[in-house]
Amino acid sequence: MNADSRKKLWRILSFVLKLLITGLILWGLFRRLDIGLVWQNLISQPLWLILAIVGLAVIRHWGQYQAWQYSLQINPLYELKRVEVFNSYMIGQALRFAVPGSWGIIGKVAYVSNSSKGASLLSCFLERIFVSWSIFAFASLALLFIPQGIPAWIRWSLFVFLITLPFWLYFVLNLNRRWKRLRPNYIRYAPGITLLMIATTLLNMLQYWLMLHLSQAVSFWDVVKRMSLSNLSYSIPITVAGLGLKESFAVSLLTKIGLQAESIASTTLAIFIINDVIPALIGAVIFLRVKAAR
After folding, report:
1. How large a percentage of the chain has pLDDT more than 90?
2. What is the pLDDT of residues 146-179, one digit of tens each?
3. Does the pLDDT at position 199 exceed 60?
């Protein structure tokens, strides 16, 4: 068996393994729930709410697309082509399902014309750092109020470190002579990327709050705290885009404040379909169109 065949076999096996793990986690979760009630909650949402969630998803993806554009523009040699940026962003939404932990999204760099593939890859890594930063920063904020048995000095140290991380990244760019040329544009675009990450995270929290609050009264702040911890599932690279893990974390955290497990599960599934599955399908269509045009 040659190297290409082994790589292809490994990709197939890893994908199958990912599906099996996702299926097992979902099975373990839903066997403890009333499936009929989950389904009823899923299909009985009012039209205005679905439209609101879809509208927030569109705004959220626009913010993430804008962050990807800014990340590319950190390279001073990059020439902006918005259609190409949009296509690569949407293709990335499809590719993120290909590898556990959503790292397949890195494949979008192949669909961007840049001064080099290395420059596009660096931009992608910077964007991924900011995406991960927003997840961990919100989680560290939540830990200040939901200690989870972690000592206060660790929680505060983690929070301060994460809040200031975008600032320290500027100095990291000084460690490599090739990265130094990125520093002027990093200063220019990093604040915008940071604000976009915060805004898109809050929009996601608003989606959860709208659906959960419709069935049971819950404060927006409680949803922010507990879903911020639940979003840590995205950083555990064993399932399809965090599916299964996120639902399990959300049910565990939100039932502690009196929310119904079936309502939580149907909410996370509905938002997963709207935020992740539908954009991935659109991205797959764009991928096939772009591939055919090459």
Report:
1. 60
2. 988 899 999 999 999 999 999 999 999 888 888 8
3. yes
Which residue in 33, 41, 118, 32 sits closest to 75, CA to CA? Answer: 118
* Residue 76 phi, psi (nearest 5): -65, -15
Contacts (Cβ under 8 Å, ≥6 apart) of 61: 93, 275, 279
CA distance 226 to 81: 39
DSSP string, 50-79: HHHHHHHHHHHHHHHHHHHHHHHHTSTT--
CA atoms of 190 and 212, how far apart (whole Å): 33
Q: Give yes or no for a contact between 114 and 217, defined as CB atoms under 8 angstroms apart.
A: no
Domain boundaries, the chain: 3-293
Q: Helix, strand, or coil here: 115?
A: coil
User: What pTM was estimated for this model as a whole?
Assistant: 0.88
